[in-house]
Structure formats: structure tokens, C-alpha cells
Amino acid sequence: MSDIAQVIIIGSGPAGLTAAIYAARANLAPIVFEGLQPGGQLTITTEVENFPGFPDGIQGPELMDTLRKQAERFGSRHHFEYVDKVDLSARPFKVMVGDVTHLAHAVILATGASAKWLGLPDEAHFQGRGLSTCATCDGFFFRDKEIIVVGGGDSAMEEANFLTRFASKVKLVHRKDYFRASKIMVDRVLGNPKIEVLYEKEIVRYLSADGKKVSGARLRDTRTGEEADVNVDGIFLAIGHSPNTDFLEGQVALDAGGYIVLNGPTGTNIEGVFACGDVADTRYRQAITAAGNGCQAAMDCEKWLETQHVAH
Fold this sequence. Notes:
- The protein is α/β, with parallel strands linked by helices.
- It has helices at 14-25, 60-73, 123-126, 135-138, 154-163, 183-190, 287-307, and strands at residues 4-10, 31-33, 77-79, 85-87, 93-97, 100-109, 113-115, 131-132, 146-150, 169-173, 195-198, 201-207, 216-221, 227-231, 234-237, 241-243, 273-275.
- The strands form 4 sheets. Strands 1, 2, 3, 4, 5, 6 and 17 form a 7-stranded mixed sheet that branches. Strands 8-15-9-10-11 form a 5-stranded parallel sheet, covered by helices on one side. It has a 3-stranded antiparallel sheet with strand order 12-13-14, with no helix packed on it.
- The chain is elongated and about 65 Å long.
- The two termini are 21 Å apart.
């Protein structure tokens, strides 16, 4: 058992690190568990061009390092370990990391969500090199290029339509002969002259002319098994996200998709436990909205601790 921390922050993306900055500046000496992939999804984003304050863009890992250093300047303490489980049934809250149990008066959950991938060979290698899961983040890089969007839900329809602002041609690849997306979204796709729908097709291999970036995909017909190569400059996967909440099951209220249910801007169903960023956001999923949400969570946490007469 350790001394009781004012607040433990679980997660290290823009939400968790911004929460750390605000909590540290409020003299709460937060402990941050960053996991083994500190920085969250931005660590696999090569160039971030839509985060305010960086007119020339910034590398994703560099942005996260900058946020961490800013938090540390004010006294946050960072551990590059995963939290295995938590016990939020009584205060002080228990946060278990391996064989060590950490105690805290308050907890901020900022574990984010992970984009779903196809699980193909070389997938990790091509992430940020022509392979993306975020049209808003990376669409600009594909101006006047031909690209593939994979998926059949509303997100895939939305991303395909959005990407026609930049791409010369969007090939929408879907493994079935019908979409699960809403009719209005499907109609927009089918009515867009820059979108070609490839039904009953699935990617079985990423292609690369130079071994460094994506140059195409091998598609398999889901009915016949026949395979054919398609040359494109980029591939966007829009097959959904999974919130990183497995370790929270039975501890805080989750919706059917596993996202944390918020009570107010950042509260949960447990007093003293707050959530921010993609772990509770099914709509925006942007670095800047996660950062703003992290600020809110830290401020809400500080005010709550004051009411408990435990804040410094």
C-alpha cells in the first residue's frame, strides 16, 4: 500500500496529459499511469496538423512529449506501466499495478479508445505511411490522390464523403452486399460521383512499391475468393473503435459499446471518479477535444476534492 495520492490519472493521450497539467498546477501532485504506449493513438500519428498552435504541424510523439514535460514541470509523476485493475467500491480508491496497490482520493479515467484494425501482415509498419484510421487527421495529405475506405457503417460513409474533399477518387470497400449504415448516409455515398463502391470485397494484403508506404491493396471477392490488386495512394480503415475499458467492467457504468457513461461533463456514476477523452467520446475523437475534456476533468476533480476537504 502507498500513501494516498490526491488524484491518479489513468491514461496518457491528450486527455490524460492535459488533465495532468491542470491537476499539477492545482497542487494536486497527480500520479499518471501512462501504460507501455505513452501518448495514446497520437504515438502512431506521424504528422499532426490540426492541433492549435503548430502552424507547420508537429509529430504526434513530439506533441505528447511536450505535454508530458509541461505536466512534469508542475509536479506530476509519471509511470510507464499498465493498470491491471481498480477497486472503486470505497474510498480511498485502489489502483492495482502488478503486485502494487496505489491509493487515491480521486481518479481520472483517460484510457482512450483503440481503432479497430484488420490484423493483416505489415499493418503496424504502414500505420502513418498511407494507412490511417482518421480521415479528419490525415485526409489533407491525400489531395488529388486515389484512396480506399474500408467499412460499412455510418462512420465509413461519413469518412468516404469527407475524403472526397481531398481525394480525386474514393473506393469504398465493403465485405457484404449491403450496408449497415443509415439510409441517408448510404444515399449520400451512392450519390457522390467521386465514390466507387466495391461490394463483397475485403482487403487481404497491403501492397507497397518501395516497402515504405502503401501503394495499393489486394482485394478478395467474398463470394468467389478471386483476388485482384488495386493501386491507391492511401487506405483508411473505418471499421470502428473499441474503448479501453476492459479493466473497468463492474466498476463504473458503461454503455452497450463499452464507453464510460458520463454524469455531467466529466463525472461518472461514482463520486470522485471522472472520465475524459475518447474513453467516453463516441463523436469527436480529436486530440484537441480530448485535451479540452482533460482540462474539464481536472477542474471538476479539483472542485470535488475541495468539497471533501482533502485538497492541498
